[in-house]
Design a protein that fits this description.
alpha+beta; BirA Bifunctional Protein, domain 2; Threonyl-tRNA Synthetase, Chain A, domain 2; 10-stranded mixed beta sheet; 20 helices; 17 strands; 21% strand; binds serine
Length: 610
């Protein structure tokens, strides 16, 4: 079997590409209020795309864990996942379109690399609009790359489909533009590579009159995306040119693996769920259910397999099931998997067994799975048990009604723990529709959380690197050091989360803080603010940073070279930034609340005013 990840890293780290490998960031972004999960490799790299120097230089390569749950109900086909692994190479103001395109082509088609037949590769480019011109440059480089392989590649038109030598097709922003994932931030035109499976699956009634590379019929599979990040979308909607031209590429590991195993004849269709990535989970599902991975059971098994893999990874990055934000998404994943397990005819507990398989299959690449294996399997097992008890009764209750209303959806949520989305999905299976508004009205009546905020956050995307969050980030560093001064050196960061309004800081400490301690912490921080201390940064190897006493987050993984932020000689932390230049900018620091956040872990909410 071709180890795609290994090849990718090898290709990009060797001469003349000379990239440096960076570890995957956790799925839960640090200090970013606007997204629940990392949804793409660019996300943790935004400061560097905007021009901050990266400790490892201008050429990076990584395999980033990512989570997208916008399309959760699409999972079950050949191409949708919630959790996935994204392979990417990065130029931070170094090489641009030419190298990116030639290297993409070489990696896809080179005999030493993936060895795909170049005749089966098709390309899309940005067609241009009022914000940015047609990407003629990429078109030319692609033509050259194909020519070197003896193939004449011409610009075609999607409306005419794949005819003659047409191999490169222009599409609008909806298809060939990437980012910003949030309201503002780095973005640019992209160029995608497709593999022609040759499968005759186009159905004009479903997929449109003409089969073209982006028509979604499944004949042409997108394998890789080269993004040329050269713009910054500003709050007023304008696109300004970035000071540096970046490259961000993303290759979906699952998709590429499926194509390769299919070409090797290992699987019957380019189906990621039949590949080595999922086959142990699927075969365990087959034996648990006594059903074959076939017909309608394929969809059910894919859903369970995808969700159990996601849930395991999400828990390993510190999320617990709950009623809000990340916890809610995790709960939804587990409960949805349990329901589809029932539809497969599995009546006993099964999720824990499956999560054990995920851990076993993925622990070599992700040591956090092994490290947290007990917490993963226990959490999944407990959540399954809890929901398993009420699922059957809830479904019976649900069956009593001909028409499902918002009130019923709410009662199912309240009494049987049915996530709203699950009831809505069941309604759709019965070809009914429930208005979310009605459910939310019931919800509000009960003074519980509104999911709207969480949804907004989730869709929101990248952080607007606003001044307020930057200030709170610097305040977080002051807080950690001050807690160590006041409470002792055992204090270490356990979690951090910042919104424009407040910071939240979790740290190791065995008991509640006294009023005196809280006063003292506030007083010291406000003194440090008044002293207007400078914040400086340096790039060191991780060892040097540790020797110099820089604090790290115990659970985090770091590359060999890191950035260290110091607040004068008061605090020193390994951190990606950004921070303010002087503490005088912060205003007045105030602790809003102090509470328990787990066994031997305390949580502080604090804000800055003025
Ligand atoms: N950001 C781009 C994507 O997610 C390329 O990495 O497709």
């Amino acid at each position: 079997m071709i180890n795609v990840k290994q090849k990718f890293i090898e290709f990009f780290t060797t001469h003349p590409r000379n990239h440096r490998e960076i570890p995957s960031s956790p799925l839960v972004p640090e200090n970013d209020p606007t997204v629940l999960f990392i949804t793409a490799g660019m996300h943790p790299l935004v400061p560097y795309l905007l021009g901050e120097p990266h400790p490892l230089g201008k050429r990076l390569v990584d395999v980033q864990k990512s989570m997208r749950t916008d399309d959760i109900e699409e999972v079950g086909d050949l191409s949708h996942f919630t959790f996935f692994e994204m392979l990417g190479n990065w130029s931070l103001g170094d090489y641009f379109k030419k190298e990116a395109i030639f290297w993409s082509f070489e990696f896809l088609t080179g005999k030493k690399w993936l060895g795909l037949d170049p005749k089966r590769i098709y390309i899309s480019v940005f067609e241009g609009d009022g914000n940015a011109p047609m990407d003629n440059e990429s078109t030319l480089y692609w033509k050259d790359a194909f020519a070197a392989a003896g193939i004449t590649a011409e610009l075609g038109h999607p409306k005419q489909g794949v005819i003659g030598n047409a191999r490169i097709f222009p599409y609008p922003k909806t298809k060939n533009w990437w980012g910003p994932a949030g309201q503002t931030g780095p973005c640019g035109p992209d160029s995608e590579m497709f593999y022609d499976t040759g499968l005759q699956v186009h159905d004009t009634k479903v997929h449109g009159p003409i089969c073209h590379i982006n028509c979604n019929c499944g004949r042409y599979l997108e394998v890789w995306n080269d993004v040329f990040m050269q713009y910054n979308k500003k709050t007023d909607g304008a696109f300004e040119k970035l000071a540096q031209q970046n490259v961000d590429t993303g290759m979906g590991h699952e998709r590429v693996t499926a194509i390769l195993e299919w070409l090797e004849g290992k699987v019957s269709e380019p189906d990621p769920f039949q590949t080595g990535l999922f086959k142990n989970i699927i075969s365990s599902l087959e034996s648990l259910s006594g059903k074959k991975y076939d017909g309608m059971y394929k969809r059910y098994m894919r859903i369970v397999a995808d969700h159990v893999r996601s849930a395991s990874f999400v828990i390993s990055d510190g999320v617990m099931p709950g009623n809000k934000e990340r916890g809610y998404i995790l709960r939804r994943l587990i409960r949805r998997a349990v329901r589809f397990g029932r539809l497969l005819g599995i009546n006993g507990l099964f999720m824990k067994t499956l999560s054990e398989i995920v851990i076993k299959d993925y622990q070599t690449d992700y040591m956090e799975l092994n490290k947290n294996s007990k917490v993963i399997t226990d959490t999944i097992g407990m959540e399954e048990k809890k929901f398993g008890n009420t699922l059957g009764r809830g479904l019976k209750e649900l069956d009593k009604y001909q028409v499902l209303t918002g009130k019923i959806a709410f009662d199912l949520y309240q009494s049987f723990g049915f996530p709203w989305e699950m009831t809505a999905e069941i309604a759709r299976e019965r070809t009914q529709k429930i208005e979310k508004k009605l459910f939310e009205e019931e919800f509000k009546k009960h003074q519980e959380l509104s999911r709207t905020a969480a949804k907004g956050t989730f869709k929101g995307g990248l952080q607007d690197q606003s001044e307020k969050t930057t200030k709170l980030h610097t305040a977080t560093h002051l807080l950690q050091q001050t807690l160590r001064v006041v409470l002792g050196k055992h204090v270490r960061q356990k979690g951090s989360h910042i919104t424009a309004e407040r910071l939240r800081f979790d740290f190791s400490h065995p008991r509640k803080l006294t009023d005196e301690e809280i006063d003292k912490v506030e007083q010291i921080i406000n003194e440090k603010i008044k002293d207007n201390l400078p914040i400086t940064t340096e790039i060191l190897t991780l060892d040097e940073a540790l020797v110099k006493g820089a604090l790290t987050v115990p659970e985090a993984r770091y590359p060999e070279k890191v950035k260290v932020y110091s607040v004068d000689n008061f605090s020193k932390e390994v951190c990606g930034g950004p921070h303010v230049g002087f503490t005088g900018k912060l205003g007045t620091f105030k602790i809003i609340k102090e509470e328990a956040a787990g066994n031997q872990i305390r949580r502080i909410y604090a804000s800055l005013t003025g």
